[in-house]
Amino acid sequence: MRQIVFRRTGPPSVLELEEVPDLTPGPGEVRIAVEAAGVNFADLMARMGVYPDAPPLPSVVGYEVAGTVDAVGDGVDPGRVGEPVVALTRFGGYATQVVVAGFQAVRRPDGLGAVEGAGIPVVGLTAWMLCEVMGRARAGDRVLVHSAAGGVGLAALDLLKWRGATAVGTASAAKHERLLARGYDQLVDYRTEDFEAVLAEGPGFDLVLDPVGGASWAKGLRLLRPGGRLGCFGFSAMAGSERRSLWSAVSAGLAVPWLQVNPVSLMNANKGVFGVNMGHLWDEGERVAGWLAELLVLWEQGVLRPHVHGTFPFDDVAGAHALLHGRGSFGKVVLVP
Hints:
By secondary structure, this protein is an alpha/beta fold.
């Protein structure tokens, strides 16, 4: 099998392709022949050395794949061989083979290709947690979504429109026309405008979804109406460039509204703060697999509309990472062997 590995942290150029022995599934496990692997911002942060949950060096990252079951371990129905699936992986997704627990490999519906399927698990489940499980967005709610053109931003939009909520997004101006056509009700250009200043004159928000962190969280808190919730699902402010920057990390950390998110302050403001990190849900594996199955039903119903910006071959993984660093993608970026 082939896998993408980095032996030291640094810019995208540290990623390299290598040959290693094939994997063997253990009891209760299946092996997936990977046809596509999703790229996520956590992968970039791990490669830079600013992701605390990253596997030890040498590292193979990657949280999600789509492909076909080609081998099973003891206790798994042999009839699953040949089954098209999508799956979350606890790293190791940047490879031509992955092994996961049988329940983690969820059957792909007819018509859902591997490339599109690989773009669903992480962003779809993150949006599900943000909008359904914890954020509880419902008809009439007003929701602010940062990184609106990213994979989570588009998945969240689908869920918000399904529930009848109003969706306001932040994105670069070049992406506004496509996002409005997709369903966003209002957009702010975060590169040239202070989103707090633009939105402060309007009604408060019931829910703010923020993967940026730092000062952005403080602004989001101020924009919430009483009863509103801030959903934190990333800290991209710590990764301002392709390389690790101590200054970026420290300045972003200092800008976190630490005093405003203590229980007493939140109680007095009638506001809530919650966090979503799919990488910390491995002990809830069967529950997560159930949510993924629900998302695939929504795909079949036309509610969930994953958009893949583009595919990169394994030997151009550095190009995929550089694209995400430059904030140039619209939707998901996917690697194909």
